[in-house]
Write a structure and sequence with these properties.
The protein is an alpha/beta fold. It contains 27 helices and 38 strands.
Length: about 850
């Protein structure tokens, strides 16, 4: 059977995967007008925080090779001849088909405004769009997004990530008018403006003309105007149905290709799926319904006529510009006799609304802004439907105002859809667990649950734990087989009982001799509690390789030298010393993205000699090897920058000097920005500080890396003393309660009550331990010693720095080659050329 698919977006790719998984007797051709195959458009904003196009890809070349699918990139289809059953592409090649699938998606709507075609006016849809927006941002200072819906707020986040002063222009009276009510919209606006963006509501753009200060001037219908350098249109989408119209297929009055419940158009040999399809008068603009259509169409093509597309839930949970926003079902209470319950905490920035049936037996919808931790529970109650508690308001009221009545996962029917992106039901998860899946990772691999947006991950984990318990398995968070305690429990045992060695801890609270999991974890706990030198004889055997030699081991067996440079501020004399050391020992030298200078290529026996020179020049260990504070990045602040409002350099130096050497469950990175332009990228750090006219805003629990997370705003307009006090409490609370190797971002996501609970602990001292946490941190400050200074002063420690136990000879396998005036490790083929 000859299958032609027009469009290789997320939905088109899902159709291919569903089809080839059901047989190989197909001759499939896919047309894609973009230069690359399918990629994750849902995560498009992550492109600005470091993800590459390759990392966003959903369709590896191997897929097309293995499944023998012909992929035609950069080749748009121009016409469909439904009578002859052929499609004609831009390269004037006709391809015949037996079945045709339209997955053409949608296009961004650009209002018919005079001047919309001026240079540096863009839409926000493809990776190519993002690339040209990025290029324009480099020569710009101000950006405007026209449109305050979901896509508009995503585009605004992108402009902020690019360092532009960001404005959002919305025609309606509130942001996200489709999903939110007036109260939620007001709160969302307040939170977004607190993050530095400016929101302009009820503004209709009349024309775009030449600006007087900036490149463009937006002239509004009310006579006001706004000047900007970059304009991004994100005012909604329209279905791509022009090919269907040309082929004589039925389309809706306002666009969209009409389909039946098998996703067939009015021509039974042509299907339409995704945002281009119109079912029962509705366009579904989310990826999950598109995936459902893709599966229905694929199964119908192979002859499975019993499966149908009968609509889809449009509930959504997002983090927009760092703000949690969720909308479920009938969020506006349009159902007759519906009752509304609303809770607002403006101080905490939280709004929650429930919509229930008139008899109070069924949840119809909900809105959550600022705290969406209850999204999974409320969504399942609305979808299945499950009985409500006698007092429905208890579902959204804080615990102190009434007993929270959560949802036991055992009440969910097997038909409950847990992962809407991949159509994974609770029954499918239970079946996978019965088949041997005993971890979330195994569940993801077996069912694809939580592999797209990830929002269903917590619920999937609850089902996994409940099922394992029901089957007689013990579900624990034990550190390892040697300790029947979590890291948090071990921390308290060490602290309360004054335990100072691993041997004492395992004798009193564990068994056996320990392992590579528990030894480094306990070493970190002991260092956090007692601030003792980690290479003392009783602690040294516990350390992993990097801590064992106070340096990061590199791929060729050499080590890196990373001195601390607080705030990135360094004197000429210290720069000279670094250069002299690098020349003396032939090291590769690189300035990092964290405002430090790294020296690479040191052999283990050279480390003490190098550090003796560096310590003598006033440098100290940068702890690049440890699960500790790494750096506090800084912009130049108001000392030099014309936009700066506070002295970010001084604050960054003070913070780095205070928290240097602080051991934690995972590495910690910080940053201080002198204004909301955010040049230090503080909102992507474990602790981020941003200057305001009134003081400092404190952000926590952000991180870059494999799974970036935007930091949450913990407190605003703090003076210097309050800022430091809150950071003290936050860090020590994390160190006390975090799991082994758990970053602050994951810790917060797993913290009961999330950012609101953390705010109560840190800012309101709800647990009454604030003074205790501050005292613990102060003890660290008073007892701090540079580990490398201590090492070179201690003969017993110096003995460990040699490559061979029984010889002082260096490692002869370390070979360098010259490149760009420096050294780099030799590649395997280059090592083979070395003389024996």
């Amino acid at each position: 059977m000859k299958i032609v698919v027009i469009g290789n977006g997320m939905v088109g790719q899902r159709f291919l995967e569903q089809l080839v998984s059901r047989g190989d007797d197909f001759d499939i051709t896919v047309f894609c007008e973009e230069p690359r195959p399918a990629y994750d458009r849902v995560q498009l904003t992550s492109f600005f925080s470091g993800k590459t196009a390759a990392e966003l890809s959903l369709a590896p070349r191997k897929f097309f090779q293995d499944s023998k699918v012909t992929l035609r990139l950069n080749d748009a289809v121009l016409a469909i001849d439904a009578e002859r059953r052929v499609v004609r592409s831009a390269r004037y090649r006709e391809v015949p088909y037996d079945k045709l699938v339209l997955a053409t998606g949608s296009y961004p709507f650009v209002p018919p405004v005079s001047g919309k075609d001026r240079r540096d006016c863009f839409v926000y849809r493809t990776i190519e769009d993002l690339e040209v927006i990025t290029a324009a941002a480099r020569r710009s200072k101000v950006g405007v997004v026209i449109g305050g819906g979901l896509l508009g707020l995503e585009a605004a986040k992108a402009l902020q990530d690019l360092g532009l002063e960001t404005h959002i222009v919305e025609f309606a009276a509130r942001l996200m008018a489709v999903q939110l009510d007036d109260s939620a919209g007001r709160l969302l606006r307040r939170k977004i403006e607190a993050l530095g963006a400016k929101v302009h509501l009820q503004r209709s753009t009349r024309e775009i003309v030449e600006g007087t200060v900036r490149k463009h001037k937006l002239v509004f219908a009310d006579g006001t105007h706004l000047e900007t350098d970059v304009i991004v249109f994100s005012a909604g989408i329209r279905p791509r149905d022009e090919l269907a119209r040309g082929a004589g297929l039925a389309v809706g009055q306002r666009g969209g290709i009409q389909i039946d419940s098998h996703c067939r158009t009015t021509n039974p040999d042509i299907y339409a799926i995704g945002e281009c399809a119109l079912w029962e008068g509705r366009i579904f603009g989310l990826v999950a319904p598109g995936y459902q259509m893709a599966e229905v169409a694929a199964r119908h093509v192979v002859g499975e006529t019993n499966v149908q597309f009968l609509g889809a839930d449009l509930s959504t949970k997002l983090k927009l510009m760092g703000v949690d926003v969720a909308s479920i079902g009938d969020a506006h209470g349009a159902t007759p006799d519906a009752l509304n319950y609303a809770f607002t905490d403006e101080a905490a920035g939280v709004y929650k609304k429930l919509v229930v049936s008139g008899d109070k037996k069924q949840l119809l919808g909900a809105i959550l802004v600022g705290d969406a931790t209850d999204y999974g529970t409320l969504l399942q109650m609305a979808l299945n439907p499950l009985p409500l508690p006698e007092q429905p308001e208890a579902l959204i009221l804080p615990a102190r105002a009434g007993a929270r009545q959560g949802l036991g996962v055992e009440l969910l029917p097997d038909s409950a859809l847990v992962c809407s992106c991949n159509s994974v039901s609770k029954g499918a998860i239970v079946e996978a667990i019965a088949g041997g899946c005993a971890s979330v990772g195994a569940l993801k691999k077996a069912t694809k649950c939580a592999t797209s947006c990830g929002g269903c991950g917590p619920l999937a984990k609850q089902i996994l734990d409940a099922e394992l318990r029901r089957r007689g398995f013990a579900v624990t968070n034990h550190l390892c087989e040697h300790f029947v305690h979590s890291r948090q429990e071990l921390f308290h045992l060490v602290k309360v009982n004054g335990i100072r060695t691993f041997d004492d801890l395992i004798a009193r609270h564990g068994k056996g001799r320990g392992c590579d999991i528990c030894k480094p974890a306990v070493a970190s706990i002991l260092a956090s509690c007692w601030q003792e030198m980690i290479l003392k004889p009783r602690h040294a055997p516990l350390q992993d390789t990097n801590d064992h030699f106070l340096a990061n081991l590199q791929k060729d067996g050499t080590y890196s030298i990373v001195p601390r440079v607080p705030g990135g501020e360094i004197t000429p004399d210290k720069l000279i010393v670094l250069g002299e050391v690098a020349k003396r020992y032939g090291l590769y030298t690189k300035i990092t993205g964290a405002q430090r200078i790294d020296l690479f290529g040191a052999r283990v026996e050279q480390l003490p000699l190098i550090w003796k020179d560096l310590v003598g020049a006033g440098f100290e260990s940068g702890h690049a090897y440890g699960k500790a504070l790494r750096t506090v990045k800084s912009c130049v602040g108001n000392t030099w920058c014309r936009y700066g409002v506070q002295d970010s350099v001084t604050m960054a130096i003070n913070i780095e000097n205070r928290y240097r050497g602080l051991r934690a469950p995972h590495k910690i990175k910080m940053a201080v920005s002198g204004c909301t332009r955010e040049c230090a990228e503080a909102q992507g750090k474990d602790v981020g500080v941003i200057a305001t006219e009134k003081g400092w805003n404190l952000y926590v629990c952000g991180n870059g890396g494999m799974k970036p997370r935007h930091a949450d705003l913990l407190a605003t307009d703090l003076d210097d003393q309050t800022l430091v006090r809150y950071i003290d409490r936050f860090l020590m609370f994390y160190i006390r309660t975090g799991d082994r190797l758990q970053r602050t971002s994951v810790w917060l996501e797993n913290l009961e009550g999330g950012i609101e609970y953390l705010r109560k602990v840190v800012c309101e001292d709800a647990l009454g331990i604030g003074a205790e946490l501050e005292a613990d941190l102060q003890r660290h400050v008073e007892n701090y010693e540079c580990e490398w200074k201590k090492a070179i002063e201690t003969p017993e420690i110096l003995k460990r720095f040699r490559h061979f136990v029984n010889s002082d000879a260096p490692d002869r396998s370390v070979i360098f080659v010259a490149e760009r005036g420096q050294i780099r490790p030799a590649r395997p083929e280059e090592k083979e050329l070395e003389p024996a």
